[in-house]
Amino acid sequence: MAQTFAVAGLTPQLWDDQFFRDYVRQSRYRRYMGTSAMDMIQVNEQLTKKRGDTITFALVNELTGAGVTGNSTLKGNEERLNSRSHALTVDVLRHAVAVDDWDVQKSAIDLRNASRVQLQEWSRKTLRDSITNALGQIDGVNFTSSTVAQRNTWVANNEDRVLFGDNTGNFNATFATATFAVSAGETLTPNILSLMKRQAQKASPKVRPISVKEVDQEWYVCFIGPNAWRDLTEDNPTTNALTLANRDARVRGVDNPLFTGDSLVWDGMILREIPEIAQLEASLSSTGVRLEPVYLCGAQAVGLAWAQRTKSTTDTDDYEFLHGVGVQEIRRIEKLRFGTAAGADTTTPKDHGIFTGFISAPSD
For the domain 146-301+353-360, what is the CATH code? Predict the structure, then answer.
């Protein structure tokens, strides 16, 4: 039995609401979450108001037709709305901590209230890791758990949404062959990021940019692992175009993002370092080159379905000697994808809002 205890000072509902808001707000992905089809991480909470275990995301692609002008007839010249869907089946996520009266007596801190901090940190990390894993998923399977066959199918279906190294010529429908083509010198540069952006814009359908609240224009967002970030920002720092642009064209002094570790910008892209991406490194090449993924994200890259927000659970055991507090949610997080076969949402799936690059990222 999971043992839990009550938290003094807050009603359960207030505790749950505050806990949820605080840990979600602390996520480094929070600024990219929203409920519309224009958000990078689209949040859907339909099941918090009704029964069910599946939430369907409607995936919308841009219109490409020219329309009509003047007195031309519109009827018969309509453009078919190219909309597909992606269904997420939610699941329960729980954790709890327990403490007994003797531990409380011995401790110099309030262990019962300290449990809230620990559970909140666990929830924050779990949300972060779930989103990070979703960015690298191979058709719904975490990259590290995917098979050779699954990776080959994924890369063949996403030819216009993947780049290996610094040029499109490295592509191969066999995943291992493509990764083996990446040489040690093909580390992340501003030019590679710009190439990824151009390829994402030319993809069919294109990866749609998003509107970020901090800046009133459309952007892509790139999530980059620590070793790739090192190469992007520290290689030849006196001549690196990215470093010079952010040093000279943005706020000066200690608030410059080069010093604070905040987002950098380049060529219509917001760049963010995500240390946990290092855990998703791809297969080593035939020459032992370590690869790291880079995710260029646009609208509807990831779906986050909540059927139940944070709910606290409380209990006592052993004649009220053992006390604990637990939290539970019902949710699911996945990379959104759509079927490309005629009339089928799941056949020959393609990533909807993510362009993935695999680049050389040697260990320190």
Answer: 3.30.1930
